[in-house]
């Protein structure tokens, strides 16, 4: 097999829905969409935005978990893809720059085999309401993203060899730059075109599996010396 690990985005990729957006639409007490727009303009970094949006969530954990279970189904082919990959000796890991707390419950309810989850940690107050985010999966020096997807890819390459990255959104740009092969759709396609990242279009994880089973040569990473999202104090 050509790759030793597959890094997969969660919101809109492994899950068929943008779970963070669903939660904000239902429970946010402030203008959360304006923060997304500010991030697109470069006014705020991803870490600043996700922290501010977390602070807008006006509900307890149970209410939010119930909403997620009712409205956010996993991508139908993801569980079988994970099973296939593990049978081939390929590690599948999730890398998400969202709120994080909903990922493992959704995986369990969909019957996805246990896999590593690289994400932000939602903190809770005594009433089980949001009390800030912890960025344990962030880069030790760069403050741009909450979860460093570049680091997620590079760490897996050191351990497992060649890495595939699967994503669809702007937060996946930095993982795609360092992967040996990128599977892209939606907003990530435009980032790949701008950054010169070769990519494989995909619709579901059966497409990803078929490509990985083929004899197609890995494009290899673009891997700029410094990530274009690099942000320091």
Q: H/E order of the elements?
A: EHHHHHEHEEEHEHEHEH
Strand residue percentage:
5-15%
Percent helix among the residues? Answer: 40-55%
Class of the domain at 5-18 and 73-120 and 134-213, according to the CATH hierarchy?
Alpha Beta
Summed up, the helix count is: 10
Structural class: alpha/beta
Low-pLDDT regions: none
Query: How many β strands by DSSP?
Result: 8
The CATH architecture of the domain at 5-18 and 73-120 and 134-213 can be given as: 3-Layer(aba) Sandwich
Largest sheet, spatial ordering of strands: 3-2-1-6-7-8
CATH superfamily of the domain at 5-18 and 73-120 and 134-213: HAD superfamily/HAD-like
First-to-last CA distance:
41 Å
Rg (CA only): 17 Å
Shape label: globular
Give an account of the 3D structure:
Strands 3-2-1-6-7-8 form a 6-stranded parallel beta sheet. A two-stranded antiparallel ribbon has the order 4-5. The protein has a domain of 142 residues: HAD superfamily/HAD-like (Rossmann fold). The mean pLDDT is 95. Helices cover 40% and strands 14% of the residues. The chain is of the alpha/beta class and 233 residues long. Helix 2 runs antiparallel to helix 3. It is built from 10 helices and 8 strands. The N and C termini lie far apart (41 Å).
